[in-house]
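Tutorial sheet, problem 5. The three components below are modelled jointly, 955 residues in total.
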Amino acid sequence: MANVLPSPWRAWLTSRSPRSRRQAWLGQLYLGWLALLRNPLALLGLAIVLALVLAAAAAPLLASQDPLAQSLPDRLLPPGSPGHWLGTDEFGRDLWSRVVHGARVTLYIVLLVVVTAPVFGLAVGTAAGYFGGLVDVVLMRLTDVFLAFPRLILALAFVAALGPGIENAVLAIALTAWPPYARVARAETLTVVRSDYIAAAQLQGAGSLRIITGHVMPLCLSSVIVRITLDMAGIILVAAGLGFLGLGAQPPLPEWGLMISSGRKFLFDQWWVATVPGLAIFVVSLGFNLLGDGLRDVLDPRSAGR
Amino acid sequence: MSALLEVEDLRVAFDTPAGVVEAVRGLSFTLGRERLGIVGESGSGKTMTGRAILRLVQPPGRVSARRLAFDGQELLTLPERRLRALRGRRLAMVMQDPKYSLNPVMSVGRQLTEGLRRRERLSRAEARRRALAMLEAVQIRDPERVYRAFPHELSGGMGQRVMIAMMLIPEPDLLIADEPTSALDVTVEAEVLKILDGLVRERGLGLIFISHDLPLVSRFCDRVLVMYAGRVVEELKAAELERARHPYTRGLLRCLPRVGGPRGDLATLTRDPAWAEQGAE
Amino acid sequence: MTDLAGTGRGRSGGPGADAGRPLRGGWVGRRARGLLGLLATLAATFLGLLFVTFIIGRVIPIDPVLAIVGERATTAQYEAAREALGLNEPLLVQFGYYVRDVLSGDLGTSILTARPVIEDIGRVFPATLELATLATLFGVLLGVPAGVLAAVRQGRLTDQLVRLLGLFGYSMPVFWLGLMGLLLFYGQLGWVGGPGRLDTTYQFIFELEVPRVTGAILIDTALAGAWDVFRNALSHIVLPAAVLGYYSLAYISRMTRSFMLEQLRQEYVTTARVKGMPEWRVVWVHALGNVLVPLITVIALSYAQLLEGSVLTETVFAWPGLGLYITQALFSGDLAAVMGGTIVVGAAFILLNLLSDLLYRLVDPRAR
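Model answer (structure tokens):
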């Protein structure tokens, strides 16, 4: 399985004396990839995540019906019914089509959180680490305060303030999700801020903003990316929780948490309405967790405990 | 003299992702009630030898030997129960750094009496009496205080005395001392060694003294094995150190400074890959 | 980061990512800090919490004055109410009033129940505490042994099973697991009581005959000797507690495993083996004794998160606790109740933090 690459490429990638930073970086990536290949569970995770992306991209093709099309005569059909292999909900909407389209909603939420919380955390953390002194104390105290909060409840309070809806749910999640990134970024910044090339950049007259964005942030990126993978499942679960409470996505959007919430009314008689979207959440979160676990084993072998 | 410990073709190997690494490769020696030194650089396999004798090597490490017998009992095939009985009573080991080898959340007293209480079913008071006596034997001035203390409250030298006391309480027949003083200050080192030496002589234990410090070992032991890359390259009487013939042993001796000796640069140790292959003849 | 309510998962990321690393801001770095410093930090954190709830209260688009005086109030009435609420003062002064009120136990009046929020919370909080406590008990009693076994049998089947069990816990939405539990154990098998704390008939007996002592039904009924009510309450609490406890178990077993692996590598473990101690004693007394120290923090953290996680679980199980109170308040725009609930949960977090620190000092001789 490891020998899928033509050998000159492999030789270049596994070279012990890389000639450029890019070669070294790609070589590391390749070795990591090989290690990941040896971990079947992580591969399974990767497959699930890819399937999610694929389902989201090709939802209209995969879905057998319009996810919003109601058909009252076909309401609450059990799984295995002709034309509705996962059954239908209380409006006769095809569950399979809704689950597939739900992948889009989930991916959308995840992506929105990923481009907000880590970025904000990165900005706070690098600034604290780079400037030090009072800036550091104030920013990190703020981070600590946010870290010590009951997070879901805070997110609820935020949504209550901003009003229900996907974007507001994302904002609420992001507002409570940034502090760990700030801590990671600060720790990474502290290790590089005294190095000579930062001093060299300062001597060349580069401004703080330029040094932080151009020199410090890129170095924090890899650890932040690992964290993001590990956080994905958590983001999905909180978003689903907000949807379940009616504070996230609004009907008739096929959001999985919301779908569970509406299926709750028929739990004891038409179990599939609540069960199917929950399974989707479970599988996707598991995928991210397996992948994240595998990535961590590769990138941080010491903590893998193996 | 019947041998206390017989070791024949002892091997310790580790399975790592990069392949099998052999830490000890075919070690053989016999030990009576005497003091044997094992000397070598770090990585020469001397520590693993000590642990293998007590069957303390954990997976992924593997131990094999044609014969590894203590007092006639084959250790490698001994059932766990009987092995534990040996470990608790007749075999003991003092490790390098008391900072790590004592349990940080257990009081010294509990650690000292644990064996007596569990294994020999002594009453609390009796176990305590024996432990205090032993603490006195390792020349701790205020045994009551140390008995109540926790390991982090002790100095390194004090901790190592506690460790020695703990190991000698069951009056073992064989003590393995694995670099027992290398984590200590030089001044404390001398004291601890004196205590250890006194107790070993007084009680007539067999001792395996593992160290990287050749002169120290030769002062302390009757016989010295010099290990390199998992093999014994030379075996010497301690008194005849100067007559060492193997280039590695001579190299080890040469890189030591000597009072009154020539003042030039110290020699650096040169290594010949062939040494790793042949071993002692 | 984010946490499905009450999963009790690691703060710094996914499964076990944070083994041995600091768990969270104020929660850590404690070894260096003195008790006084810790108290100051906690006080600052509480003030920060109040500041955030205060700000959210301001930002909320619902007009608090309108909520009190009603739609048909005259301008004069409106202004008077506004004045009375102190809304004309500068923001910082208002915050000062706010802190003073909260510290004196005044969390405002609930619109929904027309009672002081603090009274409402006093009435519902015991139900949440009872649930979270039982769940944590469940998580500790099963999670710690599971983690220890996984570490001892590292890489083998037991280890894989525990790992998978943990990963499942990290991947299931708590509200969905609750629903599935209801479907199976209540709907299909009928092994447990359904939603709520008691059946209606027993509810009646409970209200009439059992004196409230602690607010926890199991304890109160046991004290009163009302064993049939006790049994009914037990049948109701067992499922939600097991569901919540599962998340606690996933987290605790994972952390225990990684702490244990670290400890089993230590020299003192070898020492214990040299002393001839049996393996169970080496593992469960020597190594676990050292694991208890960091584990206290993990358990406290998990407990705090179960308190928070009650929001979703209580919704599913119609459990009349703080979580349900907050969500209901949320939908009726009952701002004071939502913020009050948030403050109480936040305060509980901070108290647990303090408690774990004190316990920690007790267990670890090095911290005394």
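Marking note: Confidence is low (pLDDT under 50) at residues 1-32 of chain C. Full credit if you identified this.
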